[in-house]
Amino acid sequence: MMYFRAWYRREGDKPPPNLEYSDWVVYATDEADAVEKVLANMGRTEPERGFKVYLTLIPDEDEGTVALALARQNGQAVT
Question: I want to staple 26 with a disulfide (CB 3.0 to 4.6 A). Which of 2, 34, 42, 66 is the partner?
């Protein structure tokens, strides 16, 4: 399992420069699973036309655990 920061943005837009401020923190098996979980969290099976789920891997497991715990407090955790 891996931790990701996720954003839902228009295609071509990039996530904000400060990666600490993501829309969600996702705990998933891989990138495809993370995208699927974000979309399910939004009640969707695919992104709206012209939109995309962007992901950034949180490489350190301890950092990911803390990020997920903080996201849970804010309602931004997706597992």
Answer: 34
Q: What's the burial of 35, exposed, middle or buried (CB within 10 Å: 0-12/13-18/19+)?
A: buried
Beta strands in the chain, from DSSP E residues, in sequence order: 2-10, 24-28, 51-58, 77-78
Question: Is residue 65 one of the residues assigned to a domain?
Answer: no
The per-residue pLDDT for range 48-68, each reduced to its tens digit, is 999 999 999 999 999 999 999
User: DSSP letter at 23?
Assistant: S
Number of domains in the chain: 1
Which tens digits make up the pLDDT trace of 24-45?
Answer: 999 999 999 999 999 999 999 9
